[in-house]
Design brief:
The chain has 16 helices and no strands. It has 253 residues and is mainly α. Helix 2 runs parallel beside helix 4. Pfam families: Ank (PF00023), Ank_2 (PF12796).
């Protein structure tokens, strides 16, 4: 590496994807190469065309040495990519506990607000209970909601961390979130409905124990009030009268 750089190699060159040598070294967890490139003037805050920063790539590799080297040389942990993801989101989603712990005190509330999503969402989506527990114990909101500009990218309009865990069929993360105070009825499409439709009956039981609304229904796609898995819910105390009321007419059958 030193030989290449001393003979005209440029740290500013990019590959076909627009990624700098520093970004590649970060992605593949080459701490020594990072130090050499930085010594020769590589930009620690360079971003690829998709907005991924070098620190974001390093966080994805999970190597705390790479993360620390970049931070020590001025890498900004509050730069989001085009998907509004910050390095802290990457660490939580990939389950990189040490990187997550390093980034938590450095990530600003403003950056998280602009991103429109919490690392709690990311940890729940990635299914990493140890990262989820760290975030919740550190005071991150278990009921944080996705901002509209993020939620609208999902066809089901999901909003809560609990929804990610339930939709993934992740009993461990679902239970952890509920035990930490997650509310089961924050999403347009009920977590209970998702669990019932996917046959995740252990999760259904957890949600019912958390007082999820057994009379929930989904009207965002169709305005006909008719819960899915009606027979199951009837056994759980569903108010069946709603199922025979249709807003397409002014009468109840």
């Amino acid at each position: 590496m030193e030989l290449l750089l001393s003979n005209g190699g440029k740290v500013t060159d990019t590959d076909q994807h627009g990624v700098t040598p520093l970004g590649i070294a970060a992605e593949y967890s080459h701490a020594e190469v990072l130090e050499v490139l930085i010594k020769h003037g590589a930009d620690v805050n360079a971003q690829a065309p998709n907005g991924d920063s070098v620190l974001y790539d390093a966080t994805g590799s999970g190597n705390p040495d790479c993360v620390n080297i970049l931070l020590e040389h001025g890498a900004n942990p509050n730069m989001h990519n085009l998907s509004f993801q910050l390095p802290i989101h990457k660490a939580a989603y990939e389950g990189h506990y040490l990187a997550l712990r390093t980034l938590m005190p450095l990530t600003t509330r403003r950056a998280l607000r602009l991103a429109g999503q919490s690392p709690v969402h990311s940890a729940a989506d990635g299914g990493h209970a140890h990262c989820l527990e760290l975030l919740l114990q550190s005071g991150y909101d278990v009921n944080a909601l996705l901002a509209p500009h993020v939620s609208e990218n999902y066809g089901d309009m999901r909003q809560s961390p609990l929804y990610f865990a339930v939709s993934n069929g992740d009993r461990t993360c679902t239970e952890l979130l509920l035990n930490s105070g997650a509310q089961p009825d924050l999403d347009p499409l009920s977590c209970l409905l998702v669990a019932v439709r996917s046959g995740r009956y252990e999760i259904v039981k957890l949600l019912l124990e958390a007082k999820a609304d057994v009379n929930c229904y989904f009207t965002a796609v169709t305005d006909t009030v008719f819960p899915t898995a009606l027979l199951y819910w009837l056994n759980q105390g569903l108010d069946a009268k709603k199922c025979f009321c249709c807003s397409h007419d002014d009468i109840c059958l």
